[in-house]
């Protein structure tokens, strides 16, 4: 990997010095094992990653190797990624979307090549030296995390309450009987009945979702249950009753898919996403309050 | 996505909309959820207020997208929700009729009040001491007229009352 970036040996000064003009920060995407030649990833075959990988704001992603680990970074201008600009930019969903997609693209490319521990969005350092310090300081944590996800893939499973299912006890008779009611009264009554029907459906669907999660968890190496997404985030109007993430061995993916098939019924609509880089299984707080590098 | 070579097993299943297949069209919500909420959390040198990130994720759940952006990224659920999109034409129509009738009733009520307030002697007996009756009736009439005006002005549906 280092062959693609001959200028980036460990004792080379930070690349940011090669960029005149505004101050540069170093944006960290993910940490991986160093690969066949490294110590941490010695047991894992690591494919070559795309040589011309570009990240946030089109910056070229380069490796920063240290002690058997590699941090993958790119330069970002501090007039956009400094503390004050960031505070404003994070309010802008379009800006966040651009950064999120770029971040995700880099993480995906790295994950396609081997074990990858993604770092949360907008983790920015003042220089490469600080990133190397981080790899020294957190060497054991990163190594442990990477060995946990090696050779496995994350799948997302979202289960929604089926909306097109008619309520268990439709009551058109009652509506007809109340012929004297105004349309408004009749509407309110229908709405009430429909809500009661929805509650029953919700309960049944939630129970099915519990079973689904438990069964998938049996097949997966690890599983996490996340907060169900709001309709505005999921983009679907139906209520989400399960938002699960599962780390699955490739050998068991078929089995995993088969379980999903068994849960598509009149209560649940099941949606599969992925494979994802193992975001949900590298979810660890390495002390956000403490300095990762030298301040 | 992670490894295209060994994708088929789950890819061939029929779950999920086509949107999850392509990289760029991967559901933004799913991406944001991951890059903001998960992965390794570690301090950079640039201090990002973590509270702000938390707030951001909350905001994303409540959606801060403009309507156009929202549509672009597939967040247009309200347009399909019959309870919000006005597909209940019957209800909308009834609502309109009720507003008209309410306005008409209000108009008649105001007219009636104005008529009755012009007979302070009669009303004063109900209210108390005779010496204050004229003054109070005057005050009240003014208040009520103002209130009635406010009601009419403050209620858009009432600006075109059915004057039946």
TrEMBL record, chain A:
GO annotations of cellular component type? gas vesicle
The answer to whether UniProt assigns keyword Transferase to this entry is: no
**Is Transmembrane helix included in the keywords of this UniProt record?**
no
Which keywords fit this entry according to its UniProt record? Answer: Gas vesicle
Q: What is its main location?
A: other
Region entry Disordered, spans? 1-20, 161-186
Please give the family membership noted in the entry. Belongs to the gas vesicle GvpF/GvpL family.
Q: What is this protein called?
A: Gas vesicle synthesis protein GvpL/GvpF
From TrEMBL, chain B:
Entry-linked PROSITE patterns: GAS_VESICLE_A_1 (PS00234), GAS_VESICLE_A_2 (PS00669)
Coiled-coil region list: 88-115
Report the superkingdom from the record.
Bacteria
**Coiled coil in keyword set:** yes
Q: Where in the cell is it found?
A: Gas vesicle
Q: What's a single GO CC term here?
A: gas vesicle
Residues of the region (Disordered) are: 116-164
Q: Where is the composition biased (Gly residues)?
A: 155-164
Just give the chief location class.
other
Q: Where is the composition biased (Basic and acidic residues)?
A: 116-153
A molecular function (GO) held by this record is: structural molecule activity
Family matches, as PANTHER family = GAS VESICLE PROTEIN A1, GAS VESICLE STRUCTURAL PROTEIN 2-RELATED
Of which family is this protein a member?
Belongs to the gas vesicle GvpA family.
Q: What is this protein called?
A: Gas vesicle protein
Q: Which organism is it from?
A: Microbispora rosea
């Amino acid at each position: 990997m280092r062959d693609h970036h001959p200028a980036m040996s460990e004792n080379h000064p930070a690349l940011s010095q090669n960029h005149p003009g505004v101050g540069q920060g170093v944006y960290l995407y993910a940490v991986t094992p160093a690969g066949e030649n490294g110590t941490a990833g010695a047991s894992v075959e690591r494919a070559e990653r795309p040589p011309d990988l570009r990240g946030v704001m089109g910056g070229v992603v380069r490796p920063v190797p240290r002690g058997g680990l590699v941090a993958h970074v790119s330069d970002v201008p501090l007039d956009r990624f400094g503390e004050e600009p960031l505070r404003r930019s994070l309010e802008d969903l379009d800006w966040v979307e651009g950064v999120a997609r770029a971040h995700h693209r880099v993480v995906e490319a790295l994950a396609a090549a081997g074990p990858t521990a993604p770092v949360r969005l907008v983790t920015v350092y003042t220089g490469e030296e600080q990133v190397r310090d981080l790899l020294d300081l957190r060497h054991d944590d990163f190594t442990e995390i990477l060995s946990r996800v090696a050779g496995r893939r994350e799948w997302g499973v979202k289960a929604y309450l089926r909306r097109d299912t008619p309520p268990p006890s439709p009551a058109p008779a009652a509506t007809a009987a109340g012929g004297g009611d105004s349309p408004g009264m009749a509407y309110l009554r229908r709405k009430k009945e429909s809500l009661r029907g929805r509650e029953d459906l919700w309960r049944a669907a939630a129970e099915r979702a519990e079973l689904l999660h438990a069964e998938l968890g049996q097949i997966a190496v690890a599983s996490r249950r996340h907060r169900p997404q709001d309709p505005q985030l999921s983009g679907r109007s139906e209520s989400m009753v399960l938002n699960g993430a599962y780390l699955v061995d490739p050998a068991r993916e078929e089995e995993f898919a088969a379980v999903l098939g068994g849960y598509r019924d009149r209560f649940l609509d099941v949606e599969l996403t992925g494979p994802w880089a193992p975001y949900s299984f590298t979810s660890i707080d390495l002390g956000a309050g403490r300095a990762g590098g030298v301040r | 996505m992670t490894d295209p070579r060994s994708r088929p097993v789950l890819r061939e299943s029929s779950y999920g909309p086509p949107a999850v297949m392509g990289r760029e069209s991967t559901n933004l919500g799913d991406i944001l959820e991951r890059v903001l909420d998960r992965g390794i959390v570690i301090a950079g040198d640039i201090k990002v207020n973590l509270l702000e990130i938390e707030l951001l994720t909350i905001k994303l759940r409540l959606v801060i997208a403009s309507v156009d952006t929202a549509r672009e990224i597939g967040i247009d659920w309200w347009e399909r929700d019959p309870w919000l999109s006005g597909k209940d034409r019957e209800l909308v129509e009834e609502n309109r009729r009720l507003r008209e009738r309410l306005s008409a009733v209000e108009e008649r009520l105001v007219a009636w009040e104005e008529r009755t307030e012009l007979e302070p002697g009669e009303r004063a007996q109900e209210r108390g001491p005779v010496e204050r009756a004229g003054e109070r009736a005057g005050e009240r009439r003014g208040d009520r007229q103002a209130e009635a005006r406010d009601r009419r002005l403050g209620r858009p549906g009432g600006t075109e009352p059915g004057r039946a």
